[in-house]
Design brief:
Elements lengths: L6 H8 L10 E5 L6 E6 L3 H18 L4 H17 L1 H12 L3 H26 L2 E3 L7 E9 L2 E6 L4 H14 L3 E6 L4 H14 L6 E3 L4 H11 L2 E5 L2 H14 L2 E5 L4 E5 L5 H12 L10 E7 H16 L19 H16 L3 E4 L15 E4 L16 E7 L2 H8 L7 E5 L3 H10 L4 E4 L4 H5 L12 E2 L6 H4 L2 E9 L12 H17 L4
Helix pairs in contact: 2-8, 3-5, 3-7, 4-5, 4-7, 5-6, 6-7, 10-11
Length: about 525
């Protein structure tokens, strides 16, 4: 284990979980070695109820906290994340098995989102004057109220990004949060909670519970005023159904089968490096990573050998330094899925150009970065999300064909287009059915543009994080209209027919005058 993750640190963080002192315990294991990592008390439905009750009381004061004070807390959190990043880099690596490079991307993300919402929330959420029904007589104001207590269910693959950034927006909007991180990476979420409290967040405004969805999922849903979920499409459908029955909102970032398109005028050196960055971050366990690659036939025979060679040079291993290109898968289930997808494809005729094998010599959950050719629709990985270090590669002949192939999926989360012609790249990007499309980048350009919304189309989910949409979703809009001088209906002295005629004339005048 890394030096900063001692048993004392793990126990201190684990004690932040809302659970009874005598609760049953669960133990997590480090993917690099499968050694015991941390022991957590498991929350019960009653613990979840208690967390929501305390959060609801705390939210009454928090929603009245000034934007200035909320901003101060978030900016302090920003500084603490950067100052103490080595702690969380060690924790993330120990829990997830990813490289330090990939873990650092999460540190960047948490800092950027903290700064963004700290400095933009007030302008987005402050009362706005809106055009009234009758100019000069109807004064209309739009207000934004926090939802109340938001439930955040965050995944194991990006434990700091997904635990902290969705919570940051909810908190800045004046909500309290009860969060259930995946148990495997709960220490990372608890570290973020500890830092946020150190930054000045009142204790009960953000709370964390631990447990299986089958045990405490109903309690989370039944108490939440809004649900934020990142995870599988199957689970997202269940959450959407449950939220609809309660008539509460939900934001769901779900699966993806993301395409990368390499056009005939692409800079091949740059595109090859981009392909590596797109396909193998966090061992491919990233919702926006690429699993399908379409390369123009005129450059296919040149691009593919370069890509294969570059993948063969990747350094795999368990290291707490910045020296590895790819780390481990996180759990045995992912290793089984990746192995079975590759085995199925090979058995049905796919050709392995690189990788294709587990690497138990490096650690129990390592799998080589893998490139497959001649993948056909009868193979499981042709359409199904693998969520591992596996990419299938295909030639295409025309731009229209590339767009059609990229859109041949039920998903629509992220895509990547490579070209030396920016106008051509943007034009193709606009035709791809995905919530984010990067031109000459893998995924980080769109993901990091936090002033713009990020989310999925189709089976990749609904709702958006980032930008104004990423914080407005945690609020209820309210319109207050103050009517001056007289009521909307005509006074008794004016017949309705005359009033309707005069109003018709006025409406025509408003149009001619350019009134909105």
């Amino acid at each position: 284990m890394p030096a900063s993750l001692t048993p004392e640190v793990a126990n201190r963080l684990a004690n932040l979980v809302v659970a009874k002192p005598d609760a049953a315990k669960t133990t997590t294991r480090a993917p690099y070695t499968l050694d015991a990592l941390a022991s957590f008390r498991v929350s019960t439905p009653d613990d979840v109820e208690d967390a929501f009750a305390r959060a609801r009381r705390a939210q009454q004061d928090w929603k009245n906290t000034s934007f200035k004070q909320r901003k101060k807390i978030l900016l302090r959190f920003h500084d603490l994340v950067l100052e103490r990043q080595n702690e969380v880099l060690d924790i993330m690596q120990a829990e997830s098995g990813k490289t330090r490079r990939d873990a650092f991307m999460e540190v960047m993300d948490a800092a950027i989102v903290s700064r963004y919402y700290a400095r933009t929330a007030e302008s987005v959420l402050s009362p706005k004057r809106r055009r009234g029904l009758i100019p000069g007589m109807t004064a209309t104001t739009e207000l934004r109220h926090p939802k109340g207590v938001v439930a955040v269910i965050s995944p194991w693959n990006y434990p700091l990004s997904m635990a902290a950034t969705d919570t940051i927006a909810a908190l800045m909007a004046g909500n309290a949060v009860v969060q259930k991180p995946d148990t495997q990476t709960a220490l990372t979420a608890l570290w973020a909670l500890e830092l946020m409290r150190e930054a000045g967040l009142p204790r009960d405004v953000w709370q964390i519970v631990i447990g299986r969805g089958s045990s405490i999922g109903d309690s989370l849903m039944n108490n939440a005023d809004y649900m934020m979920f990142t995870g599988s499409t199957a689970s997202g459908r269940e959450i959407a159904s449950a939220a609809s029955r309660r008539l509460i909102g939900a934001s769901l970032e779900l699966g993806g089968k993301n395409p990368m398109v390499v056009l005939d005028d692409a800079d091949l050196d740059r595109a090859v490096e981009g392909a590596v960055a797109a396909s193998f971050p966090s061992a491919g366990q990233l919702c926006v990573s690429v699993e399908r690659m379409y390369v123009h036939e005129d450059i296919y025979d040149e691009f593919v050998p370069r890509f294969v060679k570059r993948v063969g040079e990747m350094r795999l291993g368990a290291s707490y330094k910045f020296d590895m290109d790819m780390g481990s898968l996180t759990n045995a289930s992912q290793l089984e899925t990746v192995s079975s997808h590759v085995e199925d494809a090979v058995a049905k005729g796919a050709k392995v150009l690189a990788g294709g094998n587990p690497r138990p010599d490096l650690g129990p959950l390592f799998f080589e970065p893998t490139i497959l050719e001649d993948v056909t629709p009868d193979m499981t990985l042709y359409r199904s999300e693998t969520f591992g270090p596996v990419v299938s590669i295909y030639p295409f002949s025309a731009d229209d064909t590339a767009v059609r192939l990229a859109n041949d999926t039920e998903y629509g989360l992220n895509a990547s287009v490579w070209t030396s012609n920016g106008a051509r790249g943007r034009a193709i990007a606009s035709r791809i059915h995905a919530g984010t499309v990067n031109v000459n980048e893998a995924y980080a350009a769109a993901w990091g543009s936090v002033d713009s919304p990020m989310g999925g189309m189709g089976d990749s989910g609904l709702g958006r994080r980032h930008g104004s949409e990423g914080i407005l979703k945690y609020t209820e809009g309210q319109t207050i209209a103050y009517q001056r001088l007289h009521n909307i209906n005509p006074p008794k002295s004016i017949p309705w027919q005359a009033w309707a005629k005069a109003t018709t004339v006025a409406l025509k005048m408003f149009k001619r005058a350019g009134v909105k």
